[in-house]
């Protein structure tokens, strides 16, 4: 890849736009992806239900299905945000492409999760807080002080990422994203085992498979930079 032009923008730019409104455009991109995914999620459930004579039971607010949808939507949102941070801190093609792929995938999945909550007429937040649906014994990756859920970066870590450039930013991003995937895999694997809605179980298992593959890529990229997962 030789560079950017006005007629053929690099896909790894995550939607580069004029600097005067980066935050607005970022949320428009995320919102558009989420809207498309919500429509797809509703359509998928509708088609599946229409294909069965008996309708599936709607999950309760305290079910694993609802808890996973709520918490993973938040978990995914941070992954999208980290992708946009590193996009502005490095010009490395491999890291930017990885960040782009993660951002697009997780923005779409987040939209599906929120779409299901809307279809089930369930709140997107729980008064009981995060992770109450998931038995602690299923968490192989424990939460850090200051993080909302397993694998999530703290505000201090996000602020640090936003101040680094080049190789240093790449290493920290890859380490944070590696941890992020570890926590997300624990959550998704639990849903694949305990959730009742077939479409959600399938999505959760797909997350496990895809994120395990991405972790191998991240480990390789860290090794190339003389570093390793933390």
Descriptive report:
With 230 residues, this protein is mainly α. It has a single domain, classed as Ferritin, core subunit, four-helix bundle (Ferritin). Helix content is 62%, strand content 0%. The protein is built from six helices and no strands. The protein has helices spanning 22-50, 64-87, 93-119, 155-161, 166-194, 198-224. The longest helix is centred in the N-terminal third of the chain and has 29 residues, at 22-50. It is elongated, with a radius of gyration of 18 Å.
Provide key terms for this protein:
single chain, Ferritin, 6 helices
SSE blueprint:
Elements lengths: L21 H29 L13 H24 L5 H27 L35 H7 L4 H29 L3 H27 L6
Short description:
The protein is mainly alpha-helical. It contains six helices and no strands. α1 packs across α3 (93-119), α2 (64-87) runs antiparallel to α5 (166-194) and α5 (166-194) runs antiparallel to α6.
Helix content: 55-70%
CATH superfamily: Ferritin, core subunit, four-helix bundle
Instruction: Please provide the ordered H/E string of secondary-structure elements.
Output: HHHHHH
Examine the secondary-structure arrangement and name the CATH architecture. Answer: Up-down Bundle
Structural class of the secondary structure composition? mainly alpha
Rg, Cα atoms, Å:
18 Å
How much of the polypeptide forms β-strand, as a percent range?
Answer: under 5%
Low-pLDDT runs:
1-13, 15-30, 50-55
The main sheet comes to: none
| Number of helices in the DSSP assignment | 6
Instruction: Count up the domains.
Output: 1
Mean pLDDT over all positions = 83
What is the approximate shape? elongated
CATH class (first level) name: Mainly Alpha
**Secondary structure tally: strands:** 0
What is the quaternary state of this protein?
A: single chain
CATH topology heading: Ferritin
N- to C-terminal distance: 31 Å
